[in-house]
C-alpha cells in the first residue's frame, strides 16, 4: 500500500525529514519548495517548485495527487503557507502534521531586545550609528532603507538584487548552517555591534545568537508569528515517528 506524503519544505529540517522517510518502501514522497532561491539545495526525494495558488490551489493539488498526509515543515516565519496548509487540509479532510521547532530562549548574558515584527525592528534602530548585521530576506530588508545612519552587513543565500538604497552596506552570500566560531570570526571582522535576527529557533542559525552572547553584542530579536494549531512535533525525529504511526493506522484501516 502506497502512502502519499506531501512535504512543504524550504528548510534544512524538511530535507532531513525527506531523507529519513525516503528509505521507507511504502512512502511516496514529494517535497514542495516555494522557489525563492536560485539554486535550491539538492533534495533526497522528488521536488516540485512554486506556489500552489492559495488555499484553493493547494486543496486542488492535494486531491489531484491523492495526498494522504500533508507535512508542514516550512520555516516558522513562513506563516502564510502554514495557514494555507491547515486550511487546505481541513477543506479536503486530509491528515496534516507540522514541525514546530522551539524558539530560542533567553540565556544569561543575552542582550536581546525582543520586538513584534520587522517594522518594530526598524524602529528599534532609530538610534545613533551602529554597525548592524542583518540576516533577513529581501522583502524584509527593504524597510531598513529608512535608517540610513548605520553601517550594514547583509548575509543572504542569493545576492540582494537590486541592492538596497543605503550608503554604507556590505553584502555576503552564504548558505547555513553557521557555527558559533564562524559567526564570531565574521562579527569581529566587520566590527558588528548589533544584530537583527528573527527568532527562528533550531540549530542551523543559532551560531550568531551564541556568538552575540559570547561577544556581548546587542540583538534585536523578532518574535514568531502566530501559526495554526495542528498536530505537531518539535524535532525531525519526533515528526518521523508521528508519520510512521499515522501510516500504520491507515494500513490497519485498509484505506
Ligand atoms: P510565506 O510567506 O508563508 O508564503 C508565501 C507564499 O509562498 C505562499 O502563499 C505560497 O504560495 C508560497 N509558498 C511558501 N512556501 C511554499 C512551499 N514550501 N511550497 C510551495 N509554495 C510555497 O512563505 P515565505 O516566508 O516567503 O517562505 C518561502 C519559503 O522559504 C518557505 O518554503 C519557507 O520554508 C522558506 N524559508 C522561509 C524563511 C522565512 O524567514 N520566512 C526562512 C528560511 C526559509 P501560494 O499561496 O501560491 O501557494
Please supply descriptive tags for the structure shown above:
255 residues; alpha/beta; Rossmann fold; six-stranded parallel sheet; 8 helices; binds NADP nicotinamide-adenine-dinucleotide phosphate
What does this structure look like?
This protein has eight helices and twelve strands. The protein is of the alpha/beta class and 255 residues long. The protein has two domains: 3-101 and 226-254, Rossmann fold, CATH 3.40.50; 111-222, NAD(P)-binding Rossmann-like Domain (Rossmann fold, 3-Layer(aba) Sandwich), CATH 3.40.50.720. The strands form two sheets. A six-stranded parallel β-sheet has the order 3-2-1-4-5-12, with helices on both faces. Strand 1 (3-8), helix 1 (12-21) and strand 2 form a beta-alpha-beta unit. Helix 1 (12-21) packs across helix 8 (236-253), helix 2 packs across helix 3 (79-92) and helix 6 (180-189) crosses helix 7. The longest helix is centred in the C-terminal third of the chain and has 18 residues, at 236-253. The chain is elongated and about 65 Å long. The model has no long low-confidence stretch (mean pLDDT 95). It binds NADP nicotinamide-adenine-dinucleotide phosphate (NAP). NADP nicotinamide-adenine-dinucleotide phosphate binds at residues 8-11, 32-34, 36, 51-54, 57-58, 74-75, 77-81, 84, 137, 198.
In short:
The chain is of the alpha/beta class and 255 residues long. The chain contains eight helices and twelve strands.
Amino acid at each position: 500500500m502506497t502512502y502519499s506524503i506531501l512535504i512543504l519544505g524550504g528548510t534544512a529540517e524538511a530535507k532531513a525529514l525527506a531523507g529519513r522517510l525516503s528509505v521507507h518502501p511504502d512512502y511516496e514522497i514529494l517535497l514542495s519548495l516555494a522557489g525563492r532561491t536560485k539554486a535550491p539545495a539538492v533534495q533526497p526525494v522528488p521536488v516540485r517548485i512554486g506556489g500552489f495558488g492559495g488555499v484553493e490551489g493547494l486543496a486542488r493539488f492535494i486531491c489531484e495527487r491523492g495526498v494522504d498526509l500533508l507535512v508542514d515543515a516550512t520555516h516558522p516565519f513562513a506563516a502564510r503557507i502554514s495557514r494555507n496548509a491547515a486550511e487546505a487540509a481541513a477543506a479536503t479532510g486530509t491528515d496534516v502534521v507540522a514541525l514546530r521547532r522551539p524558539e530560542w530562549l533567553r540565556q544569561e548574558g543575552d542582550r536581546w531586545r525582543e520586538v513584534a515584527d520587522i517594522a518594530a525592528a526598524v524602529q528599534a534602530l532609530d538610534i545613533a550609528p551602529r554597525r548592524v548585521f542583518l540576516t533577513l530576506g529581501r522583502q524584509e530588508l527593504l524597510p531598513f532603507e529608512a535608517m540610513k545612519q548605520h553601517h550594514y552587513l547583509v548575509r543572504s543565500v542569493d545576492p540582494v538584487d537590486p541592492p538596497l538604497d543605503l550608503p554604507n552596506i556590505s553584502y555576503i552570500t552564504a548558505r547555513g548552517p553557521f557555527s558559533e566560531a564562524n559567526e564570531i570570526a565574521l562579527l569581529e571582522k566587520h566590527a558588528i555591534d548589533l544584530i537583527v535576527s528573527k527568532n527562528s529557533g533550531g540549530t542551523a542559525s543559532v551560531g550568531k545568537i551564541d556568538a552575540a552572547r559570547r561577544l556581548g553584542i546587542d540583538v534585536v530579536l523578532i518574535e514568531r508569528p502566530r501559526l495554526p494549531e495542528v498536530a505537531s512535533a518539535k524535532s525531525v525525529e519526533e515528526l518521523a515517528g508521528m508519520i510512521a504511526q499515522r501510516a500504520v493506522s491507515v494500513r490497519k484501516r485498509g484505506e
